[in-house]
Amino acid sequence: MKDDLFEKKRKSEKRYFDTDLLETVEEVFDRQTILTLFDLMRSRCIKEIKGVISTGKEARVYWGTDYEDREIAIKIYYTLTAEFRRSIWKYLSGDPRYEDLRGLDRRRLIYVWAGKEYSNLKRMIKAGVRVPEPYCRKNNILVMQFLGENGERYPLLKEAYENNMLTKKDLEFIYQDVLNQIIIMIEKARLIHADLSEYNIMVKGSTPYIIDVSQAVSIDHVNAIDFLRHDLDTINRFFAEAGVDIEYFKDLYNKIFEVFNEYSIKRV
Ligand SMILES: Nc1ncnc2c1ncn2[C@@H]1O[C@H](COP(=O)(O)OP(=O)(O)OP(=O)(O)O)[C@@H](O)[C@H]1O
Ligand SMILES: [Mg+2]
Description:
Elements lengths: L1 H13 L4 H10 L2 H12 L5 E8 L3 E7 L5 E7 L4 H11 L13 H22 L6 E5 L2 E5 L2 E2 L2 E2 L3 H6 L5 H22 L1 E2 L8 E4 L2 E4 L6 E2 L5 H18 L8 H14 L5
Antiparallel strand pairs: 1-2, 2-3, 3-5, 4-5, 6-7, 8-11, 9-10
Helix pairs in contact: 5-7, 7-9
This protein binds adenosine-5'-triphosphate and magnesium ion (MG).
C-alpha cells in the first residue's frame, strides 16, 4: 500500500521532468545522482527542470523552477575524475576550513566540493557580494538563483564584450565594481575567488555578477596572496585589452592589497 502511494507520488513528480531531458540526465549522470535529483524534488527544492544551460568539464548547469515559482540554476557536478581531483587539491589543502580530507573517496570529495561552493556563496551573499543566491545543496547538486530571465541567462562578460554590448563607460564601471567586489570578498567574506576571469562574471547591463566560486579559498589559505595576484592579473589583462585605462584605477587596486594584509593572518 505504502509502495503504491510512493509509486503514484513518484509518477506525479516525474511529470515535471521533460522525458527527453530525463534521458540526457540519465545518460550523463550515475544512479546516485539521479536519486539525489529526485530527493531534491521530493523536498520541494526543485519543481521543474526545463533545459540545459551549460555542459562544462566539471559540471552541468540546468535551468528550472522551484515551488516559489522562482527560476533556478541547478549545477550538477560529475563524479570526480583523477584529473579533476588533482586540480581541486591545491585549493583544498592549505585552507584551514578543509584541513583533514585524507581518506575520502571520490564521491565524498565531490560532495565536499559542491558543499564548498554552497558555503562560499552563502558567505558571499551575507557579505554583500553580488553572486547568485544559493537555495539548497545535496550531495553533488547545488541549486541557486538563476541569473537571467525567462530561461535566458545573462551573457558572460566575455560574450557581452565580444558582441559589442558594452560601451567604454560600461566597461570602466564594471571594472571598478569588480575591484570593489574583491575588496568586500576579502573584508567581509574573508575569501579570495581564485578563478576570477571574464568567463566567471555575468553581466546584466553594466552590473556584474560573480559566479563559479567552488574553488574560492579562505584568506588564511597558505597561498591566498598568490591566488589574489592571479585573479587581479587576469582581470587587469582583460580590461586593459578591452581599452580600459587600468592605471586610472591604481589606487583602488593598491587598496586591495592593503585590505588583504590587514585582514589576513600575519604569518612569520
Ligand atoms: N546562477 C546561474 N544562472 C545562470 N547561468 C548560470 C548560473 N551559474 C552558471 N551559469 C552558466 O553555466 C556556466 C557554467 O557555470 P560555472 O562557471 O559555475 O561552472 P564551471 O564548473 O566553470 O563549468 P565550466 O567547466 O563550463 O567552466 C556559466 O558559464 C554560465 O553560463
Ligand atoms: Mg566557469
